[in-house]
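Bench notes, afternoon.
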Amino acid sequence: MTTAAAAPVKYTLLQKYRWLIWAIFLAPPAVVVGLTIYWAYFTQPILWPDAKNPWMLELSDYEVEPGEEVVATFYSCKTDQATGTWSRALVDTVEWSLVTDQSSRLPLGCGWHAIVQRIPDAAPDGAYRLAISAEYQVNPLVTQRYKFISKLFTVKRVKPLPPLPQRIIINPPWSSQRDKELRDRIRRLEQWRYRTEGKSE
């Protein structure tokens, strides 16, 4: 007894390529999720501080006058070629912004770096800290911020401020005596005129 062979199953294109279709639809979300996790949790810091004095600035002078310059040095290790935004500020009870540099680039590797900063002429006397901040946009999700800050230093004005401009009146030393002589001469002329007019009448 012979049995009839089973009829072959006919697959439609949708059934045949269903795994490929699923892969096409799921690949973009998977890539986005993977990049998000990597950017958020596996991004390495761009700057590493000095192990002994982390995020500290060393100044060339700790007592300066307004208008003078100080040299701030700091140690760091840079692991990426990224360009950051660097800014500087004087700090007492608030931060007084000084300079913002959009294109500052530190070299790769570890070493000491120096920045020259001029103290503003209008800075009042007092104790301040110099702060240097760096900001790196590493990826669309992560922005790394670093801040180096110095010990307290003193801004002290040795020379007094110039006085406000005032109206200056210049009188020669002989002016008072000359005025007196002129007044006496005018008085004598008036007396002589009075006597002369009285006699003519």
